[in-house]
Amino acid sequence: GESVGLHLPTLSVQEGDNSIINCAYSNSASDYFIWYKQESGKGPQFIIDIRSNMDKRQGQRVTVLLNKTVKHLSLQIAATQPGDSAVYFCAENWGPTQGGSEKLVFGKGTKLTVNP
Amino acid sequence: GAGVSQSPSNKVTEKGKDVELRCDPISGHTALYWYRQSLGQGLEFLIYFQGNSAPDKSGLPSDRFSAERTGGSVSTLTIQRTQQEDSAVYLCASSRRQGYEQFFGPGTRLTVL
Fold this sequence. Notes:
Chain A is mainly beta. Helices cover 0% and strands 53% of the residues of chain A. Chain A has no helices and ten strands.
């Protein structure tokens, strides 16, 4: 997989199914990870985050899993709905840049299509 | 409260012209970020402001790009002598502080003809 990249650029599921979106990240020192959802014509919207001292975190219908051993992140969406159709981005906090800030490095995204 | 707002939502300009893009962050958020998103791509970090500290400009692609943040609130991203490759959606985000969730605005779609 690519650095903070996604194994599948597109994912098509049936309404009611569970969806799993995967992400590989490259920086073993990253300590914070976020999943964003971006609908057409809108800015990314926060879904869920996880810090590196955890391996699982659950939200409403979403679960993020973090496997630091293989540097893998996944987003699970339960009972996927048509409103979940969007592009999903994972992002990792790379820590200080040359300028000293902490920046998020984003993957290219997976387009999720939910069929009714 | 209101989220992050950006203006204009769309901007079409001719090659060689200067453009200014505006971002109003969430009130009280001390960190502000600019990103660029090309068609079908992820987000590319451009610049970061934190309070009154000097901005982190390490992501700016060339010296034609600059940004400022006045009074610790509103930010303006300026692109001088625009080129066709500058065409993209420019997204602004703010967070209550560095290392925490970033809230994004709707973006400005820039088209350079």
